[in-house]
Automatic annotation (TrEMBL):
The keyword Metal-binding belongs to this UniProt entry's keyword annotation: no
A molecular-function term among this protein's GO annotations: 3-deoxy-manno-octulosonate cytidylyltransferase activity
Protein name per Swiss-Prot or TrEMBL: 3-deoxy-manno-octulosonate cytidylyltransferase
One GO term of the biological process aspect: lipopolysaccharide biosynthetic process
PANTHER family tied to this protein: 3-DEOXY-MANNO-OCTULOSONATE CYTIDYLYLTRANSFERASE, 3-DEOXY-MANNO-OCTULOSONATE CYTIDYLYLTRANSFERASE, MITOCHONDRIAL
SUPFAM superfamilies: Nucleotide-diphospho-sugar transferases (SSF53448)
Length: 249
């Protein structure tokens, strides 16, 4: 029986922190932390999809399966699709390489949830996660994506919209938005369709590739979890991660 496949896209040329996948002030490259977290997801295969020989060498050095992909691919999802092509998998999960503290239980919840939705009469094209807005996090920060959903039914809801802006705008009362967690699950067929679809106008405008699915009339399943660990976008983010890691080890 086919197993879930977790693919970790690891691009070298990050705009805000170039080469961040190889930063190793903890004694391990950043990508290794993400890989080892994903290995804790029971019953899933894990591979790294990269565009750079140094990341490939590092990944092989710590025993990961790694697939080289075209550096010109414009998104992590396209990199995931290229790496997963031709492989047998029940579903494919996209877990970004700059998530060294990703919660394995969140990945498991996404896998189980999406597999369940695929058995329904109206399966979504993909599924993702959300959590309550964390205390102390500025909702005006465009790097943290907000979303609104339908009401939860049977443990899952459907996404209505994602945005980098405050969503919804609290015009009449105080409101804490939901925070999107950038993990995605696709069926292999859904992933192939999505990868072959041109980014929509909204996706380009907000720089949020999942909006292509909504603008094309597809649905996105959303599962709520308690929270998410911070990703690494800047040098300050990385320094904070190193501090947490050293405190625990």
């Amino acid at each position: 029986m086919a197993k879930p496949l977790i693919v970790i896209p690891a691009r070298y040329g990050s705009e805000r922190l170039k080469g961040k996948m190889l930063l190793a002030e903890t004694g391990k490259p950043l990508i290794q932390h993400t890989y080892e977290a994903c290995l804790k997801v029971e019953g899933a295969d894990v591979l790294i999809a990269t565009d750079h020989e140094e990341i490939e060498a590092a990944a092989k050095g710590f025993g990961a399966e790694v697939v080289m992909t075209d550096p010109a691919l414009p998104s992590g999802t396209l990199r995931v699709a290229a790496a997963a092509k031709g492989r047998e998998a029940s579903i494919v999960v996209n877990c970004q390489g700059d998530e060294p503290e990703v919660v394995p239980g969140n990945i498991s919840a996404l896998i189980e949830g999406h597999l369940g939705l695929l058995q329904g009469s109206r399966p979504p094209l993909l599924s993702t996660l959300a959590c309550p807005w964390p205390d102390g996090l500025d909702p005006l920060n465009p790097n943290t994506v907000k979303l609104i959903t339908t009401r939860i039914e049977g443990g899952a809801s459907r996404a209505l919209y994602f945005s980098r802006s405050v969503l919804p705008f609290p015009r009449t009362r105080d409101h804490r938005p939901l925070m999107h967690i950038g993990l995605y699950a696709f069926s292999p067929e859904g992933l192939a369709w999505f990868a072959a679809t041109e980014p929509s106008s909204l996706a380009v405008t907000e720089s949020l590739e999942q909006l292509t699915a909504l603008e094309m009339g597809e649905s996105i399943g959303v599962f709520m979890v308690e929270g998410a660990a911070p990703g690494i976008d800047t040098k300050e983010d990385y320094d904070a991660f190193v501090g947490r890691y050293r405190a625990e080890h």
